[in-house]
Amino acid sequence: MTMFCCVSVSAQNDPVVMRINGQDVTRSEFEYNYNKNNTEGVVDKKGLDEYVDLFINYKLKVMAALDDKLDTLTSYKQEFAQYRDQQIRPLLVSSDAIEKEVRNYYDNMEKSLEGHDLYLPAHIFVQLGQQATDAQKAAGKQRIDSIYNALKNGANFDELASKHSDDKQTGARGGIIQWVGPHQLLPEMEKVMYELKDSGDVSAPVLSPVGYHIIQLKGRKPLDSYGTLHDQIANLLTQRGIRDQLALQAAEDLAAERHITVEQVMDQETEKACAADDELKYLVQEYHDGLLLFEECSRNIWEPAAKDTTGLVKFFKKNKKKYAWNIPHFKGMVYYCRQQADVDAVKKLLKGADESQWTKMVREKFNADSICVRMEQKIFQKGSNAYVDSLVFKVNNGKAKPRKDFPYSGVVGVVLKKGPAKWTDVSADVVADYQAMREAEFVADLRKRYKVEVFQDVLKTVNNHK
C-alpha cells in the first residue's frame, strides 16, 4: 500500500526548509502545517521559532515509528486507509454521475404516479382489531356513522379528527396523512380518495382491513418540475449515502478495468490526486504521520509510563510540592443511611479496612436485598460537598439538609491539610506529568539518534515569498 504520496517539486519554487535523518521537508509542507496550527481559531498559537522545534519533534517521532515498522501493522493500514479513502473516494464520482442518479429518482417518481396528480388526503379513523367481535364491529360502525352525520351537519373535519380519530399521529394535524401517489394507501382508501374531485370533498365511511375511515381531500397537484425538486432530491440522495455507493462502484469498475485490486486502485488514485493538489497531498500525509505518531507514543511513552508504578511513586515524591493544596481536602467516603443505627454500623464495618474495598463491603453488608446506604467515595475539597463540610470541616451554613429517603449521614476517611498523601490521590495529574517528562526524554534521545538540519535562509521566507 502506498501510505502517502510525494511529489517532486522544483527546488527553486519550493526549497527545502529542513532535513531530518536525510529526508527533506519542503517549505510548502512546513507552511501547510504551520499555518494550519496558527489559524484564527487556534487558542495556543506559536511563533515561527517555537513551532520549528515542535515540528521537528513531531517528525522525529514519525521517523521512530517508521524505524519500528509500525506502518506495517494491519491495524494501522486499515485505519489509515479509512481516513485516506474519505478524502479520495468522493473524487472518483463525477458530477454527471450524481446528476444521473437525481434524474433517475425523479423519473421513477413521475412513473410511479401512473398519470395521477399527487393527492393530500386526511382521514378520521375508527380502529377495529383483527379479531373484532360482531358487537365490536357494530359499535365501530355506529361510531363512524355518528361522526359522519356530524360532518354532514356542518361539524369541522379537523376538530373531529383531533378529538375522535384513533390515528393519533394524523389526528394531531387535523387527520392529514401526507402527499401520496398510487399504492401508498390501503386499496380501499385509495379508491375512495381518487373518487374525490375537489379540495374539501368528504367521503362516506369506508371499511378497510383495519377499521373504518372517513376521507377528506385536502389538496391535489401535479408533480413539481425536475428543476424545482432537483436540490431536494440531491440532498435526500446524499443523506442516503449515494456518493459513497457510487464511489465504491467506481473503484470496483476501475479495478476490473485495470485488472488490479480495489486497494491498488485507491493507491493509484491517491497518488494522482495528490500530484494535482498540494493541500490534499499534505492532508493525506497528515493522516499518515499523525496515526504513526500516536501509535509510537502510545507504545513507547504513554502506556509504559502509565503502568510504571515504581516510576510514578518516585516521580511523585520528587515533585510532591507541585501537588500541594491551598485548602484542606478530605479523602474518604460520605454515606447516607435510611436508619440512624446504620451510621455507626457502616463506620464500624470500614474501620481498618482497605479503602479500595469500602464500596464493595457496604454494598454486600447493607444493600444486598435493597438500597439502605448510598455512598460517595473520593477526595473532597473543602466547599465541594455540604455534608463533608458539616461533618468533617465543621462548617454548617444550612446547606447540608437531610436527604428525603436517606436522612442520616456519616463520613469515614482522613483530612489531608497540605496535599495528597499518595500519588494515587492525584493520579490523573501525576500520570500526565510523568508521561510529559518521559516524552521529553524520548525526544531528547531521538535528537541524538537522528541528524536534524534547519536551513535558516529558507526558514526566513516562510509565508514571505511570491
Blueprint of the fold:
Elements: E1 16-20, E2 23-26, H1 27-36, H2 48-67, H3 74-88, H4 95-112, E3 118-127, H5 134-152, H6 157-164, H7 168-171, H8 187-195, E4 206-208, E5 211-221, H9 226-239, H10 242-258, H11 262-276, H12 278-307, H13 309-318, E6 329-337, H14 341-350, H15 358-366, E7 373-381, H16 386-391, E8 408-416, H17 427-449, E9 452-454, H18 456-459
Antiparallel strand pairs: 1-2, 1-9, 3-5, 4-5, 6-7, 6-8
Helix pairs in contact: 2-12, 3-12, 4-9, 10-11, 11-12, 12-17, 14-15
Description of the molecule:
The protein has helices spanning 27-36, 48-67, 74-88, 95-112, 134-152, 157-164, 168-171, 187-195, 226-239, 242-258, 262-276, 278-307, 309-318, 341-350, 358-366, 386-391, 427-449, 456-459; strands spanning 16-20, 23-26, 118-127, 206-208, 211-221, 329-337, 373-381, 408-416, 452-454. 52% of the residues lie in helices and 14% in strands. Helix 4 (95-112) packs across helix 9 and helix 12 packs across helix 17 (427-449). The strands form 3 sheets. The protein has a 3-stranded antiparallel beta sheet with strand order 2-1-9. Strands 3-5-4 form a 3-stranded antiparallel beta sheet, sandwiched between helices. It is flat and about 90 Å long. The two termini are 36 Å apart. The protein has 466 residues and is an alpha+beta fold.
Features:
466 residues; alpha+beta; three-stranded antiparallel beta sheet; 18 helices; 9 strands; 14% strand; flat; disordered N terminus
